[in-house]
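Annual report, structural modelling task.

Input specification for the adenosine-5'-triphosphate complex:
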Amino acid sequence: METAEIRRRWLTFFEARGHTVVPSAPLIYDDPNLLFVNAGMVPFKPYFLGQQAPQWDRATSVQKCVRTGDIEEVGKTSRHGTFFQMNGNFSFGDYFKEGAITLAWELVTTPQDQGGYGLDPEKIWPTVYEGDDEAHDIWKRVIGIPDQRITRRGKLDNYWHMGVPGPGGPCSEIYLDRGPEYGREGGPAVDEDRYLEFWNLVFMQYELSAVRAKDDFDIAGDLPKKNIDTGMGLERMATLLQGVDNLYEIDEVYPVLDLAAELTGKKYGAHSGHEAAHSHPDDVRLRVVADHVRSSLMLIGDGVTPGNEGRGYVLRRMLRRAVRSMRLLGFDEPSLPLLLPVSLERMKQSYPELETGFDRISQIAYAEEEAFRRTLASGTTILDTAVSRTKQQGGRVLAGEQAFALHDTYGFPIDLTLEMASEQGLEVDREGFTRLMQEQRDRAKADARSKKHAHANTEVWRDLRAVGATDWRAYSELSTQGRVVGLVLDGERVEELEPGQRGQVVLDRTPFYAESGGQVADEGVITADGAHLKVVDVQRPVKGLVAHTVEVLTGPVRTGQEILAEVDPQWRVSACQAHSGTHVVHAALRQVLGPSALQSGSYNKPGYLRLDFAWNQALSRETRSEIEEVANLAVRQDLTVSAQFMTLPEARDFGALALFGETYDEQVRVIEIGGPWSRELCGGTHVQHSSQIGALSVTGESSVGSGVRRLEAFVGMEALRFLAKERALVAELTEIVNVQPGELKERVAALVTRVRDAEREISTMRREQVQAQTGQLVEYVRDVNGVRVLTHDAGEGASPDDLRTMALDLRGRLGDGSPAVIALAGVAKGRPGVVVATNAPARERGIKAGALVRTAAQVLGGGGGGKDDLAQGGGTDAARTGDALGQVDVAIREAAAG
Ligand code: ATP
Ligand code: MG
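The model returned the following structure:
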């Protein structure tokens, strides 16, 4: 049965049993504790936590998940993908244990021709929490599974909570016995590969008051409403129903593995049996390639771009691991352009948006592979040098500093360093590396901390949020009467803030825009009887709560006090111009470059905006001007800017560019400029008509990482100021070169040519001068013990080239009749140089140019060398050329005497 069919049956089954089908949330979700959605229940968390009332009693979904913790398992077990899909059914205070178990049993054991999955009931092994007699009883008496097939397990395996006080409860997991060829007999507690877990039922039953560890917590009492959360691994069910050994061999994954095997000339499974634990390293690598290519496709599809931190780093690591595995398998060409389309072919059935976005997705992936290939080329050389040096010195461990430098300077991931070093028989000092990494992180953190105020203590914010959400009026008001709900100083609740203190104020209602969606926070003031506060930052530490960071100018301000909150109107006007300007530039960019130039990030503040977008090469000056022109035309056309609220699917149908991280259950806000010309999901503040943006002036374009470019622009008055400054510059230049502005360009070009010609002329003249001088120098030849010696300080401006020409000329003039030595010194660009030449009879007397140059260079604080007949050197001390020649003189005297 195809994976897509398993998914269809799931949704049909639960929909027919009163569940509302809820679409998958994106992998990036609005949850500060999660890198990625890692379970089906994540989007439903607010309901389970009682923060929000669900619209339904029963729901079902097929949720995209990524578990970064499972990266190391990939290919080594049969059942772990980094990306996978979790089918879930959820009950909010509706059915409980018996309902959940009977529903699962029905779906799993109903024959395939009747719409079920048709698993053999005799091979099903449930587990229950050791203390959960109720669940045990249901499996035994209601379902009829014999005692010996029901395993009781402890808290580590069969208890669920969120690691913090809140809901928790026992689980029941469902396993299928795949038979003796997959491992040892004895049930799930003995062998998790033979007995494959495919479904976990969580019974949320208790309120936990303290959680110290996975298996150490206190139960405060029963939850008022008991909930069900289940998760069935779609890929694991596919593994079972397609009769394959592991999840890398199912229809959605295997085609990539197959192609990778063909490209690398490997025969998959040639060395292994059915058990993943005994696989040949090549088979593991092929599975890693297949898994990581698919996960990368899904991650980029949901808006992740490769980077060095957080989500971006996870993606980077997977892309690079895939590429690296292909290399280790013997394939050195770019591999993603071959593999990624194959993954798309399989995944687009369930996720058609991958196909429409594939230009963007593939561009990002291929650019990352290119970047990595360059990194590999340069990093490998450096690593090899470090490895052979370590070996030469008899070491067996590569220094932590080396590994860190490779990581820091060349973007070489540590796992790669470990792998490549071990291929050459070396270990890596991981501790040293980790220490350096930690030091770097601490520095970065200290840096960030000094910039942002501490939001570390989220407990404080959650308590304040529990009082109620902030009535947020940024879209409609600039000035709002309200009341102080809470005050926070250094992360702790306080009753009042005093003059001179800097802390956070939470109000019952506010007109202040909190930093989000790339737009900076509003500035303004909060005033009350006897208190005057300057608002310096506004953030949303938890959903629904606005915290104003203030400096108390006069005070104190107290909890409960009536206040007036006022946004600086000038600031807000400029902020609106900048944010609407960002949308206009984005639309202009896409009009000029095409729809694959999709925004990946943005930032705007009064007067300024920047936009990062997926694109592979620098924009030419013409393209930049064109984008600027299109944007300013849109400003001039006075397009209407409008905001509407709708659901996420409605917004997508409407053609709004989805930014990432929105949740399907909320109303999203779509901003239109000129109707369909620009449609974006956005929570920011905007002007009403595009003409209010004033002007847009693109100031720069640069690269910010592989496949991503950045465009910067000034907006409104700042754009005019920028242009005025450029005009002033032109005016000053015309004054300096004394022409009309229209002739400036030609004049400057002419001047540059003239300067270049003049420089050339000067150097010709100098050469002639040097030659003329040379002739005169012959008169200064002295006799030292029968050796003709000529030393001369040519002074400032004599380059090493000049000196050498002169020395050779002089040697020619002196001839080979008797021994002759010429030593010349000079200074060019502040650096002293020295050249020595000897003729054949001098060399026979044992006078060698190389040795003499070294003597001189030592005085100059440098070094030098050459042959016996001609040598040159230099140093740093330009004041000592005379002394250097003196030393040469002494040395010649000694050599001539000897
Ligand atoms: P395991 O112990 O096998 O790692 P788990 O206990 O971490 O599984 P749960 O957190 O209970 O799994 O997730 C619910 C279901 O999601 C599992 O029963 C399984 O079918 C599926 N699942 C979990 N992790 C993965 C993964 N990395 N790849 C594919 N499916 C997974
Ligand atoms: Mg797991």
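The radius of gyration is 37 Å.
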